[in-house]
Amino acid sequence: xxxxxxxxxxxxxxxxxxxxxxxxxxxxxxxxxxxxxxxxxxxxxxxxxxxxxxxxxxxxxxxxxxxxxxxxxxxxxxxxxxxxxxxxxxxxxxxxxxxxxxxxxxxxxxxxxxxxxxxxxxxxxxxxxxxxxxxxxxxxxxxxxxxxxxxxxxxxxxxxxxxxxxxxxxxxxxxxxxxxxxxxxxxxxxxxxxxxxxxxxxxxxxxxxxxxxxxxxxxxxxxxxxxxxxxxxxxxxxxxxxxxxxxxxxxxxxxxxxxxxxxxxxxxxxxxxxxxxxxxxxxxxxxxxxxxxxxxxxxxxxxxxxxxxx
Length: 310
Prior knowledge:
- The chain is of the alpha/beta class and about 300 residues long.
- It has helices at about 5-10, 15-25, 25-30, 45, 65-70, 95-110, 125-140, 160-170, 200-210, 225-235, 250-260, 275-280, 285-305, and strands at about 50-55, 75-80, 115-120, 145, 170-175, 215, 240, 265.
- Helix content is about 40%, strand content about 10%.
- The protein has a 5-stranded parallel sheet with strand order 4-5-6-7-8. A 3-stranded parallel sheet has the order 1-2-3.
- Helix 6 runs parallel beside helix 7, helix 9 (about 200-210) runs parallel beside helix 10 and helix 10 (about 225-235) packs parallel to helix 11 (about 250-260).
- The longest helix is centred in the last third of the chain and has 18 residues, at about 285-305.
């Protein structure tokens, strides 16, 4: 297949990016033999150029298929977690459910210890059980924490958990979000959708209280107001973000680099693997910045807690 197209526009196009991954090697030979003056772009060569750790993933029902997708994109390792969700408002969120979800992650890591980096989840409302579960999961080889919407990260119920994670030098990783605003005004988070979701300013409050903690704000590519998120999180050097999510707005990565700095950004997908890789490749980041975002930044932070990625 012969395709001649501007590299940046090529990667910014979701449909073409997806086609490139699906067709694999047959699409990678994007070169022209007829018109030598036309610039061609080998997408798969660029995809495979960088080592990658996915800092935002979840265990699929078919782990083999998940790793096959990762292999095609050059993703060496995936950090996985299985938070307790309650989309209907009627689902169980207690210690038994937490333990069940963590066991899914533990089993996935045991099956593929060279590919999966496991994080545990908790329901911080259950204080005693949460501290006990941290010990159980750490003993089973999990190396960080992923919180969901049971409580906001600045709620006092989180204090003993954050303090324990500081002792372990592990990441405090939160599902977080921020509504889009209109005309520069960010609407109050009052629409009844997961009211205990952590907002950027709430993570800033927690990060200021615990400057020695390592905070991770999830998926700036998840459809929220990523400009507001980056501007707010800029205040605290101990807050990192990941690029995960299926929202393909242009300039997300460039904006994050400008406001947070290249070393506070992790490559992540949240299951949108093609979007995640394409978003970084299509950015204006330098080669060195892409290497940091795709691999080095997350590897360096994990190392603080004793998880060494070779």
